[in-house]
Amino acid sequence: MMKATARAHTNIALVKYWGKKDPTLMLPQTDSLSLTLDRFYTTTSVEFDPTSAADQIQIDQAPAAPNVAQRVSQFLDLVRPQGCFARVASVNNVPMAAGLASSASAFAALAAAASWAQGLHPSRTELSRLARRGSGSATRSIFGGLVEWHAGHDDQSSFAEPIQEHVDFGLEMLAILLDTRQKKIGSRRGMQHVVATSPYYPTWREVVAHDMAAMKLAIAAQDIDQIGHLAQTNALRMHALNLAADPGFTYFNAATLKAMETIDHLRETGVSCYYTMDAGPNVKVIYDRRDRETILTALTPQFGADHLVVAKPGPGVEKLTDER
Ligand code: PMV
C-alpha cells in the first residue's frame, strides 16, 4: 500500500490563458500569470493498491461522475506503475466548475499526491509540468503567490515558475459568488471553439505578450492600481474573444454585468478596485487590503455577506501526510 495526501490552492489569472496549441500535451497558445489564493483549495489522497481491479474515485465524499472519473484515471495513467489502480479521495474547498478554478487546485493536488504516493520526489517544476496534463491552470497552482506559466513549445518547456511566492504588498481578491452551479460550456470546449472561430485570436496573442510584460513591471513596482487595471482589461479582452466566436457565447449572466457595473462605479468614486472573470459567471475583485472594509461595506447590501469571500495570496502545493 502506498498513500499520500496533498493540498493545492486555486489560482486566478491576472493575464489569462485561453487557448491551446497542443490539446494532448496541453501546451497553451500564450504565457499567463496568476495569483494563488489561500481561501480556495483541494485536498486529495491517492492510495495505490496492487490488489485492486479498478480506480475508485471519490469527490466531496461521493463517487465521481463517470466523465470526471475518466479524466482522473487518464491522468493517473501518466504516472502510475503499470496496471496499478488507485483509491482517490478529493475534497474541494471551492465551488466546483463555477469559474473559481477548481480544476487548477484539483489537478495540482492530484499530481503531487499521485507522485508522492509512489515514493517519487519530483521537483516543483516537474510537478508543474505533470499538473498541466490534467488542466492548464493547474500548472500554476503548484506554486504560491504570483506565478508565471511559460507557454513553451514542448512538454519540457511548458511549466510555471513563481514571480513572487510571498506576496506581502497588500494585494487581495474578493470573490463575489453569483452562481456556483456547473458551467454550461467547459473551458476546454470554450477555448477550442474560440481558437478555431474567433477572428480576434491573432490579436489576443499580441495582447497577452504586451500584458505579460506590463504586469511584471506593475508587480515589481507593487502598483496594485496598475495590476488591477491590467487584469481587468485583459479579462475583458479574453471575454471579447468568446462574444466574437462563431457562434458567439458568453460566461456572463445578468448578475455578472451588474457586479461589473458596481465595481466600475465604486472605482469612479475613488476606491481603487477592479474585476476579473473566468470561465463562469462569478466576479473576482482585485484591490489593496487597506480598502477591504470600504469595498465589503459597498458590496454587502447588493450581494449579501454570504456571497462575498475575501481571499489573500496563498501557498503552493503542500504535503499533508506521508504514509508509506
Ligand atoms: O485550466 P482550465 O482548462 O480550467 O482553463 C482555465 C482558463 C481560465 O481560468 C479562464 C484562465 C486562466 O488562465 O486560468
From TrEMBL:
Its EC number is 4.1.1.33. Keywords: ATP-binding, Lipid biosynthesis, Lipid metabolism, Lyase, Nucleotide-binding. GO terms for biological process: isopentenyl diphosphate biosynthetic process, mevalonate pathway. Residues 176-305 form the Mvd1 C-terminal domain. It comes from the Bacteria. The keyword Lipid biosynthesis applies. SUPFAM superfamilies: GHMP Kinase, C-terminal domain, Ribosomal protein S5 domain 2-like. One of its GO terms (cellular component) is cytosol. Gene3D superfamilies: 3.30.230.10, GHMP kinase, C-terminal domain (3.30.70.890). Signal peptide: none annotated. Belongs to the diphosphomevalonate decarboxylase family. This is diphosphomevalonate decarboxylase. It comes from Limosilactobacillus ingluviei.
